[in-house]
Amino acid sequence: MAVIDAVRESPDLFAGRVLYSGAIPRVNLTDPTGGAAGARLRVLFPHAGTAAEAQSLLPLPYSRYYEWLSTRGGIGLAFCQVARCRDGALSLGLSADFTPALIEAGVPLIGQINPALPAAPSAPRVPAERFAALFEAETPLPVYDDGVPDAVTAAIGARVATLIRPGDTVQLGLGKVQAAILDALAADPRQLALHGGMFSGAALALYDAGHVSAATAGVILGSQGLYDRAPDLDRLALRPVRETHGAAALAVHAALVSANAILSIDLAGQATGESIAGRTVSAPGGLPDFHRAALRAPEGRAILALRSQTPKGESTIVPRHPAGTRISLGALDADIVVTEHGIAELRHRDALDRAQALIDIAAPDHKEALAEAWTATQVTS
Predict the structure, then answer these.
(1) CB 43, CB 18: distance < 8 Å
(2) Which letter does DSSP use for residue 315 in this model?
(3) Which of 44, 64, 129, 211 minimizes the number of CB atoms within 10 Å of its CB?
(4) What's CA 354's distance to the chain center, in Å?
């Protein structure tokens, strides 16, 4: 964004300021403070472009962050990029997630009209008079590559796909697991609706093949080729977080299936998508919003997917999480867990059956140790 480039050249502009950012890992890599003295950054995800000591992670899911923004929350000024539509109107282009909350709250806006930004047909429009200032500057759009799933991830994706039925409304997280699920669905297509925070390149093949009856997302994120297609995605509705992640909006989907990648789960069913070995590496994002909505849906399924072991060969299914672990979903949220070795259905199971189901889908080399740890825990507790 041009304003970040400007602050890098004149860092005193943000000196002593508090900045809020919804930057996405592996996509937004630049420190928005520009190195300004005394500037503090508050983020939804750990920000790769900043030093760890400069970060202040907000432990909020998307829905609660949106609610806070819509009350203004002490924010005095907001920057956003906009696209100029063919009829001359201004549009949020590829994104409808958080900016509408700031608009609703009456926060003064400074808009960068970016000629490189296409306008999706359903992106919210913003009257020019709503901006305190507008300027035009072309800056490259951030791109995201889902990557090519390896054999393990492909096996996980294939197992998840078996849990998705025709007519389901499906929410998928971002990354290789999502791409693997979509690849499996494309190989054995069924009519679906997509509903989530992001519409990425991995979803486009399914969309183009006519297997997506409707799609709703907060952001279009992917390659330049996907952005070039954005003006033609007339079955994709870009909506703010209130409508993509909000409990009331999600409650209308009776057959909501959420499928998200996590990093680790313990034998009680507590999951983290935020910590590795007790060290914070990510944040909840929309995971709690979608997972709990799928749990409440009459025909819903709340799926958590993970590799059974880390690249170092350590089990991702653990007896107990280590100290410092941020628990993204509690044991009461447990439903379906998928690894490359199988599917564990945990809803309505007692503690013993739940632990055994998770051990059954662990990496073979770790099953005996997990069973022994579980037995020891029960004896000493």
Answers:
(1) no
(2) B
(3) 129
(4) 27
